[in-house]
Amino acid sequence: RKILLIGAGGSGKTTIRQQISLLYGTGFSEEDVQHFKHVVRCNVITAMQQLLKAQRMFSKDEKTDSKFQLSKDSEESGGALLKLDYLEKQNPLGPQTVERIKTVWADPAIQKTYEMKSKFQMLENAKYFLDKVDAIAEKEYEPTEADILRARIRTTGVIETNFQFSELQMTIVDVGGQWSERKSWEFEFQGARVILFVAALSGYDECLEEDQNRNRLTEALDILTQIEKDKRLKGTVFVIFLNKWDIFKEKVKTVPITVCPELKDYYGDKEDWKESAKFIMEKFLARISDSRKVYCHLTVAIDKENITRIFNATLEKTLIDALQESGLLLAP
Fold it and tell me: How far is CA 196 from CA 34, 42, 322, in A?
């Protein structure tokens, strides 16, 4: 009774596993909360350093030079933040560091840089954390569920989460999505009744962390094709979560999906997010053989109501179908 959770890095699959744990499992322990306190604080500094590095890159462009010039105070604060060694510190957000972050974050050049975030590697929830840096830096700070679900931490190795769903004891297995982690995927194929494949719908104009010339959505489509053809997964039900549709909905207003090489043949309304999302969904479904059971949904991993509705309305049928086909559950 195993669900294998697969997706490229940054797709939001780990957040989905966390939501399942909150909804059907044991949720976050006190140890988890204390761990994520440090993760969130490190995310704040990581986001600021990513912005500063991108700002410096953009400021070298003669055509846009003036738009990305920091004020003198921001330049001094930014220089100090880029030198900050913070990973080993219990609380890396000291008073001086917080003031420097607030100075730089308020600078128009950094705000302009943030608007260009699809052009460089950027923590997706940077604004969420940077806007509340004062609260995060407080000694008594305890991360909320919302903070934890938005925190970025790379999955390495294999993480198993046990939970009960529809009176069935289930295990969801989360495997790392980065290139260096994918060799471990095939060892988890055995016994998987459901493949829960997660792709970031909003990644159509973004590049991979591992390869700046590789489009995120193209990568997701190719991964799906690769695992769908694996003979060890014959008879396995596939569930596709096209995640982050909330971000996609806003992005498509200004950036058409045709910027993605795999979506050049889209001729619909470029600003209609529903039509655009339907076209992308069809692209993913086209990678699945006609003989395989497949379900596809738009999701927002950080939205508990969205994930709950999809699990209750759709995955119950999916999981029971998979167990019936494998002989582990008798049909009514």
Answer: 29, 29, 12
- SS3 label, residue 330: coil
| DSSP states along 61-130 | -TTTGGGGPPPHHHHHHHHHHHT---TT-S----HHHHHHHHHHHTSHHHHHHHHTGGGS---TTHHHHH
Radius of gyration of the chain (CA): 21
Neighbour-count burial of 213, counting CB atoms closer than 10 A to its CB (0-12 exposed, 13-18 middle, 19+ buried)? exposed
Distances (CA, A) of 17 to 187, 225, 276: 19, 23, 27
Burial class (CB in 10 A: 0-12, 13-18, 19+), 307: buried
DSSP string, 123-146: -TTHHHHHTTHHHHHSTT----HH
Can you read off the two tokens belonging to residue 20? 């399942």
Inter-residue contact 273 to 255 (CB < 8 Å): no
Residues in the chain where the model's pLDDT stays below 50: 330
Cross-strand partners of 173: 4, 160
The residues near 66 (Cβ < 8 Å, ≥ 6 apart) are: none
Residue pair 254/270 in contact (Cβ under 8 Å)? The answer is no
pLDDT value at position 179? Answer: 53
Q: What is the pLDDT of residues 187-204, one digit of tens each?
A: 677 778 888 999 999 999
Contacts of 127 (CB under 8 A, 6+ apart): 114
Backbone φ and ψ for 4, nearest 5 degrees, come out as: -100, 120
Residue partners of 92: CB distance under 8 A and separation at least 6: 41, 42, 45, 84, 86
What is this structure's pTM?
0.83
Spatial separation of the C-alpha atoms in residues 241 and 34, rounded to whole Å: 30
Nearest to 248, CA basis, from 122, 124, 112, 110 = 124
